[in-house]
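no rush on this but wanted to send it before i forget. theres a chain ive been looking at and ive put its sequence and its fold in token form underneath. please have a look and point out which stretches look like helix strand or loop to you. thanks a lot i owe you, the record is right below:
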Amino acid sequence: MTTTPHAPDGPSQPGTAQVTATDGRPTPDEPTHDEAVAKVRELLGEHHLAMLTTLDASGALVSRPMGVQDVEFDGDLWFFTTLDSHKVAEIRAGSPANAAFAGSSSWVSVSGTAEVVQDQAKIEELWNPVAGAWYPDGPTTPQLCLVRLRAQSVEYWDSPGGRLATVISLVKAKATGRAYDGGENATVEL
């Protein structure tokens, strides 16, 4: 795994983890790669729903809400679905995948490759009451399978303090004529 700095208006460059302000200036707190991965893990722990995006047969982007399974992030995200779903056909056709998460003070974008997993032991391992609401026949639901998104890169934005801190920062930026400092932003290559 490597972490790359990210400036909003420019490409990422290989190197150590770097948190950047929204105007691309480095901030004093530059996390190590391990700290950046830990930050991603922390932020993903706050989110339980993602917009999973794939490409359909015509090349159009298709997004749908999906419940991410509650496991510690190790580079993979897991989702329950059924074999007859459009997303399964798109993944089997080689579509890249992205899972986007949005909260009141943090946003995470996980990009990578996806695969369809038909492993009953893994289904049983990840089974939970929320999945039971979608699949009332339980972990033996006909055509039940998993989608595993293998992250290649993760970009996150974190505005500690939530909406109030964001509003205060926006007002401050407007009053001082300085660019808005939206908090931490980093890209982690996995």
Observations:
- The chain has five helices and eight strands.
- The first helix runs from residue 33 to 45.
- The chain has a mean pLDDT of 82.
